[in-house]
Amino acid sequence: MMEFYLAERYGIGWLNDPVGLSPETAVVGPQSRPGLSIHLSGVVDVFTIHFQPTGLYRLFGWPIPSLVNEGVELADLQPSARSLRDAIAAGNSFAERVVAAEWWLMKASEAAAPGSTMDHAARLLLRSGGIPIADLAARAELSVRQFERRFTAAVGLSPKLYGRTARLARALAFKERRPELGWAEVALATGYSDQAHLVRECTALAGTPPRRFMSQTFNNGPTPPR
Prior knowledge:
50% helix; 7 strands; alpha+beta; 226 residues
């Protein structure tokens, strides 16, 4: 995604590392490990553009694996993006900012790479997260190794890790929509074998069990211990 900080910038830290300021305009790559902390202060005014899993690769041809767990100054990757930030900052409303972003992205899309089987595979994993990699490779008429290499180049994460993160995101979003359900019910509804499986995956990927993660992330207070 792209983030445009139009007032105070976020403070970003990893585990025990010192907190540093985010770039003024950041390209944020896929996240593959826990430990990221975001610190807010002052006036926060951020405009964010989210992309489909292969969107940045198709639009700009950037080396997406090098962006994993990173926030990079957008202008270093795409100098023409300075005009985009200026146009977004000049917008007097959210709608005007959207128009500015859409115009710039439409111009960028004129040189975009055509769609590929990796786009379809990423969307399938985003929806389900549990499709066997061998099945996706067969649909793409590739060997498993070829498929993994091409997918990682386009998305940044391996298909297996991407599927795991997509499934966890679905589980957490499902719980946010259905707070009355217990975690065992959420786990079974979103493709986990049981609640313990969901807890292990959330701890591995997000660094904390799901109940604590929801409380910290969405600031909803303690989640009922069901």
